[in-house]
């Protein structure tokens, strides 16, 4: 069906976010992350992903999201399919869902990382989900 996009929805702090499934290679549990001296604040470190070095970024730093109340058992790394090995650390992956055009709102005034706003139901409540532009998120990582 034309006009349908698929996104991975996830939580950062108390907010809901999404990225296109086309930008996702895989989702893995958080493993040992090695800190890198003098790395930018949003780079949490590097992780060995089956023999490949994967840079882990913390989108909460870039998006200025409060990082209180983190359940480490639910945290995941979303490994991105962007031509280099980069992953984003999220508090919880919620679902993979279709997004219809009538669920989308313009997000140009919400900053450089925002692609659109998705209106959708999560846990029987209508939530506003910020659809992130992955290319802009990983620039400079």
From TrEMBL:
One of its GO terms (cellular component) is cytosol. GO terms for biological process: chemotaxis; signal transduction. Residues 4-141 form the CheW-like domain. It holds the Pfam family CheW. Gene3D superfamilies: CheA-289, Domain 4, SH3 Domains. PANTHER family: CHEMOTAXIS PROTEIN CHEW, CHEMOTAXIS SENSOR HISTIDINE KINASE-RELATED. This is CheW protein. It comes from Archaeoglobus veneficus (strain DSM 11195 / SNP6). The lineage of its organism: Archaea, Methanobacteriati, Methanobacteriota, Archaeoglobi, Archaeoglobales.
